[in-house]
Structures are given as C-alpha cells and as structure tokens.
Write a structure and sequence with these properties.
single chain; 18 strands; about 350 residues; Rossmann fold
Length: about 350
C-alpha cells in the first residue's frame, strides 16, 4: 500500500549524500526504493530489516539503539514518524545528537499522527525548521540543527529502560515504549488466558510444547508456565523481544525467545499455539497480516495440535482460517473479543 507521508521524504533518501541515516519504521513494509550507498538504515522490525537487506541496503536491526553513531557525525536523518509518541520523541532526540551543526532532519507524517506537534517541539530543539504539505492532512518538515544545547530534548519516557508496567496476581510484567500495548495488559490476551484452562480440558491429551506467536512482552508465555512445558516465544519487534527475554529471565519459564517474523525460520512443530494477532501495520489496517499469522500457525502446528487465536469480533477470522485449517470454530466470545479454535483434523 502507498503511504503519502513516506512519499514526501523518499526523494531525500534517494538524493542523500555525505553521511546519512534512514530511520525505517513498520509503515514502510511495502516500500521499494533503490539502495543509496551514502545512507544506512536502522529499523526495529526484523521483517523490514530483511526486506531492505534483500534490496541492497546497509541496514541494522535494533531497538532503535543509535549508539553505533557518533555525536555530530551525520549530514542528514530521514524519518517517517512512528505510531507511538515516545518512539518519535526518542528518535528526534537522537537525530539531534547525531547530526552535525547545520545538519538536516527530514520528517513526515499526518496531522492525526501528531506531525504538527512533533515539528513544533523539534523546531525548538533544533533552532530552525520549515514545513510543506502534500495535502491538508499530510505534512513534511525540514529541521536544521543550529542549537548546540540539548536542554529542549523531547520527553521519550526513558525509552530504553525496561520497567514494570503491568501486573496481576501472578506476575509483574516488564516492558518499555516501542512494544505494542507496552504499559498495560491487553484485554484480548487476558480474555484468552481467562479461558485457557477450560480450553486445554477439551484437548485429547496435554500439550507437550507451545508456541507464543507474536509474543509482545510475553504475557501469554508467562501464563503458560504452570503447564511446565517448553514454550517458544517469537516476535519481529526488537523492543518486544528485549522485554520478553527480561520476563523469561525473571521467572522460571521453560522456554526461549526467538526473533522471527510470523515464525519464519522456526522449523519445530507444536502441540499448542496461542496468538493475539495484530491487524495494523503502522497506522494502517492490514488484512493480509491476519492471513500471514494464520499461515504461520498452520505451518508450525503438528497434526494432533490445536491453535487458539483471540481477535476482535469484527475480524472474520473463521472465514479466513478455512483456507489453512480443517476446522475453525468460535469457542467463546464476550461482545468485544472471540476465541477461535483451529485444528488440522476434526
């Protein structure tokens, strides 16, 4: 899908010279842009890293850790703003640190995403800036680093710091900005765990292993620990992987955390798969995401296994699942969420 905001700054990526940085976010998964030797890309998504690598880019995967870049060393930074405010604030701050005096930060986004506010704050930090519009909703901005002081840094909520952001009667959950739903327990995931034991009672025999597909900070995995079976947790987001590993290390989880996009590269088969699939790619709803997670569950579920997906009521998961599974049935719903049981056999 085309992204108007990204299209505004794509020419800067292509024309960049000197030493430049492209901060590549999940909004750009459909981007096809020729590699520029003057530009390095940093992304927090392993699928985007692989996509850009195949196109010839020099690209790094991290939780937007820009420590590999020296202070005052870049000529330009190009960034289509992210969905989450602390991420945007962190990256604007880091762009200010890394840019040379009179270096340029090129940003773009939509009014509903906060681009006007980001520009206003960044202009105060940088010293100079100007905007242009593609239409009434989509803006780009050029910030020039004239200030030497960093006293006007934006509030990034201690971006890199893992902290306890949610808890229940069993666990405290470490998370951080950059993880989807980082500062709460997702209501859909909580609904799945509420019904987990009754769901497991319907299985012909206890599962021997489990896959948490799209694990986030590891809520579902931690709540499988009472089964005392090996759990594999996987996600494509660097912050989620970092948080999940922290939670696995804190509690006696018999499991491992694997960086992967929709379990790509994982060859093991599983008796039990749990998944709360995303249906947004950046700011846009992406129906193909649900299909990708269903395909991954199909490929990783063994013949006797069972998968349980939790999703919003409006997602037609049962219909979509029929192309991958023999049986897809709703086993519980509460008006907001539904649990779908998926099997290869009746």
């Amino acid at each position: 899908m085309s992204d108007t905001a990204f299209n505004l700054i794509a020419p800067y990526i292509q024309r960049a010279s000197g030493r430049s940085l492209w901060l590549a976010d999940e909004n750009l998964l459909s981007a096809n842009i020729s590699a520029n030797e003057a530009v390095i890309a940093i992304t927090n998504r392993i699928d985007l890293e692989q996509h850009l690598y195949r196109q010839g880019w020099k690209v790094f995967f991290s939780d937007y850790d820009l420590s590999i870049i020296e202070d005052n060393s870049l000529d330009s930074v190009i960034y289509r703003v992210s969905k989450e405010k602390p991420v945007v604030h962190h990256l604007i701050n880091e762009a200010f640190r890394c840019l040379k005096p009179e270096g340029k930060l090129y940003i773009a986004g939509e009014k509903g995403e906060g681009i006007k506010t980001y520009f206003s704050k960044a202009k105060k930090l940088f010293g100079e800036g100007e905007t242009s519009k593609a239409d009434k909703n989509t803006w780009s901005a050029t910030l020039t680093k004239l200030n030497a002081s960093s006293e006007d840094l934006l509030d990034a909520k201690d971006f890199h710091q893992l902290r306890v952001t949610a808890s229940d009667e069993t666990f405290e959950y470490y998370s951080k900005p950059g993880v989807f739903g980082w500062d709460k327990i997702d209501r859909g995931s909580a609904y799945l765990i509420e019904h987990l034991d009754s769901f497991l009672m319907t299985l012909p025999e206890p599962p021997r292993n489990a896959l948490d597909l799209g694990c986030g900070y590891g809520y579902l995995s931690l709540n499988l620990s009472h089964l005392d079976i090996p759990v594999t947790a996987t996600d494509n987001n660097a912050a989620a992987l970092k948080a999940c590993e922290r939670n696995f290390n804190r509690y006696p989880i018999n499991g491992k955390v694997v960086p992967a996009s929709c379990a790509e590269g994982i060859t093991e088969k599983f008796d039990l798969i749990l998944c709360n699939p995303p249906f947004h790619a950046g700011f846009s709803v992406d129906g193909d995401l649900t299909d990708r997670f269903l395909k991954a569950a199909h490929d990783r579920l063994n013949g006797r296994g069972v998968a349980c997906f939790v999703t919003n009521m409006h997602i037609p998961l049962e219909r979509k699942a029929k192309q991958f599974f023999h049986q897809a049935e709703c086993i519980a719903s509460n008006g907001n969420f539904k649990l779908i049981r998926l099997t290869h056999k009746t």
